[in-house]
């Protein structure tokens, strides 16, 4: 199955090159081929990951598989957005991020981490999948936020260069950010609730102030406050973009600390 | 007489310098009056993209001094750093190119020819465009009209207004359902309003100092007119603001726009300033979520479109060069024959042809050669007596000092047409 994953990484790499080239060269062929490549990469990647997960009972084990899943979900969201809104420019920003998440995992796999007993249950795969989906949504939102900040700089700097011509309109990026953060926040909320159930089931405690728990809670509160400010105080634009990126960083901390935590492989 | 141009444009000077030199019409007239006291011919071309002084003077040096003095006086000493200067046929070429809209911010934009014509009209009324300068303008207009009718440069022009709409789309995506506030009800405002509603903007509100004009424009573009006093509260529902008033000072400042941001719930606001001097203070753009652009910023955005017209522009340049050399040839012939000579030659020609006509009517065979001679002499004598005073006056003034009298003479007696037909001779006449 590893060879499948390795092929998909190469396919993604090729797509990333095409999307980056599209920034410089306006040709409809580049993103069209890129779209096909991402689609086939997703199929290969999904097959590889699915097979591994099936063998393990549906739960990603270890940081490598966690990252691989995040990359898959992230690219899946991008693929959906590109097909739906035709915004291949996002690819130029997201593909490199996805690869950066995926490649280290590829090198690290095979450490043979196993799930400790007592961590199984129907809720666990659900909990983890939704958690990772939330992280992926916030990842895409952060990529969109980076694009927003770049475009905002162009509009404020009054330098109408290549980026200005290629990047989508500011309001579109802001609206996309809003939707992604809403869905990410919903996913994060579900994660927290299912996580609480799952942990209390497994180890008879609810809250232990582990870094994962703290980081996730901080991110949840932060995004909650952000959405509140957006809907009730009219926050938008640059401030929201910066906060989205900060929130995503906190979530990444939560993801990294979740896996090795106490050698449990527990994800909160 | 030498032609001189001193000026600055969007190519040489930033907006901040240009707007100080953009004068209202009464002030333009006043400046012209001051200039004519010093120099025989002067014209002031003042648009939102350029301020240029054209002179015809015996000494270009002297004219230059005068121009520099005036520009420093009106625009401050830093304006001098952005000036360009053309003399003789270079100045002529510049005038031709400007009139043909080849030197415009948006190449081929149609307003410039009218603006040059207005400038010429103003100078003519002030009595400071009658000779060399007037002829140069006339020829420039002919070439500009040829450029417009024979090339595609002026077709489907990318106007400032449509460029502003494109810029707005980079903020909002589409303009469907957006609210637009139009401040000022001039031609620019109307053009912008039409572009915006064509792009899908639905709520158009017009505010103008003269309310009746606001009502007219609103009716023309299907919007609503509102009193100018409500201006700042009108910012609250607006997504796009287009300004093009003749206000000498900014209407929108950082303070008065900032005060509306909270009631707007910090929605992004797109502001376009098509006016020179500016209606929107430059620091309004520094406000978070406010994007304010002036004519210079928009120019940057249309640079690409201008490139697409390069081929047509090359054809236009060829037409301008052709018209220019035609004009220069005609002028050489004209200058080669001084006015006094031309006047006398013309009069003599008329006298002799009249004598001939009379002779053919009379019974010629009865007339002795002597009588014929004396008839001729009489005709010439009348001409000479009649022309004595004008000739003496023209000699007295001398052509080097002042062309004005000579030009008036040429105009009164229609001497230029004679020169033109000479110039066109061998080419089978001109259209």
Short summary:
With about 270 residues, chain A is mostly helical. Chain A contains nine helices and no strands.
What layout of secondary structure does this protein have?
The complex is a heterodimer of chains A (268) and B (431).
Chain A: H1 2-24, H2 29-56, H3 62-85, H4 89-108, H5 123-157, H6 162-166, H7 170-203, H8 211-232, H9 238-258
Helix pairs in contact in A: 1-2, 1-4, 2-3, 3-4, 3-5, 4-5, 5-7, 5-9, 7-8, 8-9
Chain B: E1 2-9, H1 15-21, H2 25-38, E2 41-46, E3 50-57, H3 60-75, E4 84-87, H4 88-99, H5 111-125, H6 132-150, H7 160-172, E5 179-183, H8 187-198, E6 203-208, H9 211-221, E7 224-227, H10 231-234, E8 240-243, H11 254-261, E9 269-273, E10 290-294, H12 295-308, H13 310-336, H14 339-361, H15 369-397, H16 404-412, H17 415-424
Parallel strand pairs in B: 5-6, 5-8, 6-7, 8-9, 9-10
Antiparallel strand pairs in B: 1-3, 1-4, 2-3
**Computed structural class of chain B:** alpha/beta
Give the DSSP E fraction of chain A (strand runs of 2 or more residues). under 5%
How far the N terminus sits from the C terminus of chain B, by CA atoms, comes to: 28 Å
What is the mean predicted local confidence, pLDDT of chain B?
Answer: 83
For the largest beta-sheet of chain A, the strand count, sense and barrel status come to:
none
Q: Which outline of chain B best applies?
A: elongated
Number of strands of chain B: 10
Walk me through the structure.
The complex is a heterodimer of chains A (268) and B (431). The relative contact order of chain A is 0.11. Chain A contains nine helices and no strands. Chain A is mainly α and 268 residues long. Chain B has 17 helices and ten strands. Chain B has three domains: 2-150, Glutamyl-tRNA reductase, N-terminal domain (Beta Polymerase, domain 2); 160-305, NAD(P)-binding Rossmann-like Domain (Rossmann fold), CATH 3.40.50.720; 339-424. In chain B, the strands form two sheets. In chain B, strands 7-6-5-8-9-10 form a six-stranded parallel beta sheet. Chain B has 431 residues and is of the alpha/beta class. Helix content of chain B is 56%, strand content 13%. Classes of the chains: A mainly alpha (268), B alpha/beta (431). The interface between A and B is medium-sized, with 19 and 17 residues.
